[in-house]
Amino acid sequence: MGEILPIQVRELGSTIVFSFLSISTFSNAKAMHPLFDLIGEHGAFWFYSAMSAAGFFFIWICVPETKGRSLEEIETLLHKDSIRRRSGKFDREAVPLESAGQVKV
User: Fold this and answer.
1) Backbone angles phi, psi at 92, to 5 degrees
2) Are 90 and 61 in contact (CB under 8 A)?
3) I want to staple 13 with a disulfide (CB 3.0 to 4.6 A). Which of 9, 25, 62, 64 is the partner?
């Protein structure tokens, strides 16, 4: 986790991420057998496959590419004011607030 979180929030962010991961893992383990009873083993695995596919497409469409960029470049990329759609993916590119008709406060 340390390499993807900014230094200012690394400690708290890691705690939150690992807590969420633990809760998610526990919830999935507890839900598996009732899901088997409800929709059968094949249905349960198709359900988890569909959720994995939905997650894949969400990440593919919404998360920008960060390969070969420094942490500072990634932070700048993720803090942009506008999101423009380009070639099937979101491209976060800065648009100065003044040029967008808005006034900085």
Assistant:
1) -85, 115
2) yes
3) 9
Per residue, the 3-state secondary structure of 4-71, as one string, reads CCCHHHHHHHHHHHHHHHHHHHHHHHHHHHHHHHHHHHHHHHHHHHHHHHHHHHHHHHHCCCCCCCCH
Q: Which domain range does residue 71 map to? A: 65-97
- The answer to whether residues 5 and 53 belong to one domain is yes
Q: Match 């893992």 to its residue by tokens.
A: 25
73, containing H or E segment: helix 71-78
Encode pLDDT of 29-80 as tens digits.
999 999 999 999 999 999 999 999 999 999 999 888 888 888 778 778 777 6
Euclidean distance between the first and the last CA atom of the chain, given in angstroms as a whole number: 34
Work out how many domains the chain is built from and give that number: 2
Stated pTM of the model: 0.55
